[in-house]
Amino acid sequence: MSKISKFFKGGGSAAKGRGGPSPQEALARLRETEEMLSKKQAYLETRIERELAAARQYGTRNKRAALQALKRKKRYEKQLSQIDGTLSTIEFQREALENSHTNTEVLKNMGYAAQAMKKVHENMDLNKIDDLMQEITEQQDVAQEISDAISNRAAFGDEFDEDELMAELEELEQEELNKGMRDVRLPSVPSTSLPSRPGKLLPCHFTFLMIKPCSSSRKRAEDEDEMKKLAAWAS
């Protein structure tokens, strides 16, 4: 039996005796292995660069030493390639184990939730639930009827005819309009014709009725004096 077989057999027996490693322990071991291989990988890369530099240094002056350096470089490259493959395998195994652990935890929590739901529903009677929902629906209907009854406009004062009220209102408006027309007093028209005097402008307030308004810059006293003169002349 090879040493590798004995190693796995012994490890399996130990794991079986302890009931098997937990997912957390297995993941920790895998991460440790990845870290160790990464360090070995960095070491081999350094040795490869060193042997390559030595081969360049010896060159054709010392072919034997140069060839030995290249051979060591080839061995290191082979080990480095093996480590790359091992790291890929360990990474795949670690991801699979992490996914399995996650799925296990999810299923466990879902099982707990199912048990909790079952415990909650133990004291529930479907017939009682139907009766309760029916009662709630009936009370909602009653509440809606009460709200509709309260929101409807009360029929206070509906004994009066709206057409008669509108007719009375129109009569009142017509009376107010007629009263306003009676209170309006129109100015009297002069019985004699006004003399025309060429070269002399008519008073400002007389031209207000014929042409254009008076300038707002005139003083109130001057306006009153002009009105008095116009009234005396017209009479």
Automatic annotation (TrEMBL):
Keywords: Coiled coil, Cytoplasm, Endosome, Membrane, Protein transport, Transport. Gene3D superfamilies: 6.10.250.1710, ESAT-6-like. It comes from the Eukaryota. It is found in: Cytoplasm, Cytosol; Late endosome membrane. Pfam families: Snf7 (PF03357). Residues 9-20 have a biased composition (Gly residues). GO terms for biological process: late endosome to vacuole transport via multivesicular body sorting pathway; protein transport; vesicle budding from membrane. Residues 1-24 are annotated as: Disordered. It is a peripheral membrane protein. GO terms for cellular component: cytoplasmic side of plasma membrane; cytosol; ESCRT III complex; late endosome membrane; multivesicular body. InterPro entries: Snf7_fam. Belongs to the SNF7 family. This is CHM4C protein. It comes from Caloenas nicobarica. The gene is Chmp4c.
